Amino acid sequence: MTTENGKESSSGQGSRFGGLEAAVEISIASSIGKHLGDITAPYPVTATELGILSNDRTPEALAKLLEKGVKTFAGDHDDPETPSPQQKLLRDVEKLVAKIRHISEKGEGHDDDAGGHKEMDMAANVLTSVLLRSSPESGIDPREVEIRREVFGTNALSEKKLTSFLQLCWEASQDFVLVMLIVLGTISIVVEATTHEGPCNTCWIEGAAILFSVCIVILVTAGIDYAKQFAFIRLSKSLHESNTKSVIRDGKQISVTDDDIVVGDILSVNSHNLASIPADCVLLGPASDLKMNESSLTGESHLISKQPGDVILSGTNAVQGSGKMVVIAVGVNSVSGKIKARVYETGDNQDELGGEGENSPLYEKLDALAKRIGLCGTCAASVAFIVSCIVGLGVEGESVSNLVDYLVTAITVLAVSVPEGLPLAVTLALAYSSNKMMKEQNLVKHLEACETMGCATTICTDKTGTLTANKMTARALYSGKVNYSVDDPAVTLGSYVMSHQGGLGKPVIDLLCQCISINSMNETVLYFDKNGKEESSSGNPTELALLHIVHQLGQSVEKIRDTTKGRSDKGKLGEFLSQGKQYGFSSARKMMSWAVPLEGGRYRLYSKGAAEVILARCTKFVGTQGEDSDMSTADSQIMQDVALGYARRGMRCLALAYRDLPAGFDLDSLSATLTNSDGSPAFEGETELTLLALVGIEDPLRPEVPGAIEKCYTAGIDVRLVTGDSPNTAVSIAYQAGILRDFHFIEGTTERVADNLKENILMEGKTFRSKVYRVSKDGTSEFDQAEFDKIWPHLRVLARSSPDDKLTLAHGLNQSNLFADKEVCKRLLAEDGIRIFPDRQVVAMTGDGTNDAPALKRADIGFAMGIAGTQIAKDAADIILIDDNFASIVTAAKWGRNIYASIQKFLQFQLTVNISAVCTALVGAFTYQLSPLAAIQLLWVNLLMDSLASLALASEPPIEALLKRPPVNRTDSMITKRMCANMFGQSAYQVVVIMVLLFKGPDIFDGMEPGHILYEDDINSVHYTLIFNSFVWMQLFNEINCRVLKGEMNVFSNMFKNPLFYGIWITTAVLQALIVEYGSLAFKVADEGLELKYWIVSMVLGLGAFPVYQIIRVVYGMFLNKDE
Question: Is 784 considered catalytic here?
Answer without folding.
Answer: no
